[in-house]
Specification:
With 341 residues, the protein is of the alpha/beta class. It is 26% helix and 26% strand. The mean pLDDT is 94.
Length: 341
């Protein structure tokens, strides 16, 4: 049996290659992919050749434990149906809809512990956004927004929008977001932001501060999220954050340099810069939380928020190269792009 998979062969070069797919071993299952989601953040670093060469692709995902070197397969959000079970696997798995942290491919082999059954009532296009929602949940856990706070979010890509949707459920005094693209700003307000502004405007920082402040005496954001993937946005995030505020950095910049101005008001601001990444729970949560508990919250929020409405494009696997070009060259048209099989 053969499978087709997306292969990154060089910066800005993507091919769909055929390869032999062996029958499942005794402890494995064979899954036929229905949809996979392209990450417009991390995955575009791979596409553009901006991944750090000294780090594994992802040390916490067995399918991505190799180093960054072309050619390579990548991706970490696939939903499909179990076609066959190895002799040592329960036949109850057969025909189940499952999620897996797997690269983009028409079929893949996995062990039962590498598969997550999709809860009843969720379809494949909703389930494939599980990593994005889990990341948003992780950001809220690490930043701990409080009742009545003024919150700013830079970046309204798919993860930024899901973070906004979660924050909008809280009794915040003000929730203001920033993104360069009108499509994303429109969705941001539809999901609950009080205002969404263009960070490229000449008066962006002043406008954001004015939106946050309204008629309250507490200047600046209590909490700011930097989720845009653009290093320059971190300076803006610091600029709109008030005294003793918190800045959560959820972006991964890869090899892009970050020039951060810490010589001005930051020095006396008692501001916190918080690093947050979904692969591990922060140590403070280990007493009562596990990854499985956080995953359960993410599933529940997928059912509540229905984020499949944020899917802007679907490309057949054979057109994967066009999908990556669109995200790279015309990001103003995209929020979430899927590959279909």
């Amino acid at each position: 049996m053969k499978r087709q998979s997306v292969t990154f062969t060089a910066p800005y070069a993507v091919e769909v290659r055929d390869a032999a797919l062996p029958a499942p071993a005794a402890h494995q299952l064979l899954v036929a992919t229905q949809v996979s989601a392209i990450s417009p953040g991390t995955e575009m670093l791979v596409y553009r050749g901006q991944m750090p060469a000294d780090l594994p692709l992802d040390a916490t995902i067995s399918a991505l434990d190799g180093a960054f070197a072309y050619p390579l397969t990548y991706g970490y959000a696939a939903v499909g149906r179990v076609m066959a079970c190895g002799t040592a696997v329960s036949p109850d798995w057969h025909d189940r809809l499952v999620f897996a942290f797997q690269p983009h491919a028409s079929h893949f082999l996995a062990t039962p512990d590498e598969l997550i059954p999709v809860p009843d009532g969720l379809d494949a296009e909703t389930a494939v956004l599980l990593p994005n929602m889990e990341t948003a949940v992780s950001f809220l856990m690490d930043s701990q927004p409080l009742i009545g706070e003024q919150v700013a979010v830079f970046g309204q890509g798919i993860v930024g929008l899901l973070t906004t949707a979660l924050l909008a459920q809280l009794p915040l005094a003000r929730l203001v977001t920033a993104d360069r693209h009108p499509l994303r700003r429109d969705w941001s307000t539809r999901l609950g932001a009080h205002a969404s502004l263009d960070p490229a405007a000449p008066t962006a920082v002043a406008d954001l501060l004015a939106e946050l402040q309204q008629d309250r005496p507490y200047a600046g954001a209590d909490l700011t999220f930097e989720l845009s993937g653009h290093p320059a946005a971190l300076d803006q995030a610091v600029a709109v954050t008030g005294y003793n505020g918190r800045v959560l950095i959820g972006s991964w910049y890869g090899t892009k340099p970050v020039n951060l101005n810490l010589g001005g008001r930051f020095h006396r601001s008692h501001m916190q810069l918080i690093s947050s990444q979904v692969s591990h729970l922060a140590p403070r949560w280990h007493g009562r939380w596990t990854s499985a508990r956080r995953l359960g919250v993410a599933w529940a929020q997928l059912a509540r928020c229905q984020p499949a409405r944020l899917i802007t494009h679907r490309f057949p696997l054979a057109q994967a190269a066009a999908a990556y070009r669109l995200i790279d060259q015309q990001p103003e048209q995209t929020i979430q792009v899927l590959l279909t099989y």
